[in-house]
Amino acid sequence: YEALAARNVQAAEDWYRARCARLHERAARSQEAVRASRREAGECRRELQARLAEMESLRGAHQSLERQLRELEERHSAEAAGLQDTIGQLEDDLRNTKNEMARHLREYQDLLNVKMALDIEIAAYRKLLEGEETLFNMGSTSIPAPNPVSNPTYSFQPRGLSSST
Fold first, then answer.
1. Which of 7, 37, 137, 162 is buried deepest, with most CB atoms within 10 A?
2. IF rod domain: from which residue to which, for each copy (predicted)?
3. CB 149 within 8 A of CB 155
4. How far apart are the C-alpha atoms of 91 and 85, rounded to whole Å?
């Protein structure tokens, strides 16, 4: 019985040692896998932190660009409103200038009409003067008629209406 017990104890010890060796081997592999997983988790954590920092940086840049865009839009809308005001002012000035030009044109037309009427009146008076001169020259047949062209005190030369009228 002792030999059998010793063999059983030896077999149990061999089985125990083999089992422990396999378990130690498995534990070593598991520990290595855990270390690798921890390293990978650490790298992932560092990469995550880097990505978060990059994301925060990009978020700040995005907000800055949005703010600049709003400021540009506000400035451009203010400039557009200013230009619209300027356009309105210029249109008013143009309308006023056109009205003033029309008024000046009417005044010029009135003055031109007055000038034409005066030219017609002057022509009528010239004809009257020529008729009077002819009557004066015919009425004094005994006195030699003075030559109107050679008379230095009277140098009237009748003309027709000017081309400007």
1. 137
2. 1-136
3. yes
4. 10
Identify the CA nearest to 161 among candidates 132, 130, 118, 128. 118
3-state secondary structure 65-94: HHHHHHHHHHHHHHHHHHHHHHHHHHHHHH
The rounded distance, in Å, linking the Cα atoms of 13 and 11 is 5
For the record, the structure tokens of 41 come out as 């988790």
Give the closest residue to 160 by CA, choosing from 115, 137, 130: 130
Q: What whole-number distance in Å separates Cα of residue 131 and Cα of residue 125?
A: 10
| Distance from C-alpha of 46 to C-alpha of 13, rounded to nearest angstrom | 47
Q: What is the per-residue pLDDT for 138?
A: 83
CA 126 to CA 84: how far, in whole Å?
61
pTM: 0.45
60: pLDDT strictly greater than 60: yes
93 vs 88: CA distance, rounded Å: 9
What the block records as the tokens of 44 is 């992932």
What is the distance between the terminal CA atoms of the chain, rounded to a whole angstrom?
162
pLDDT at 160 over 50: no
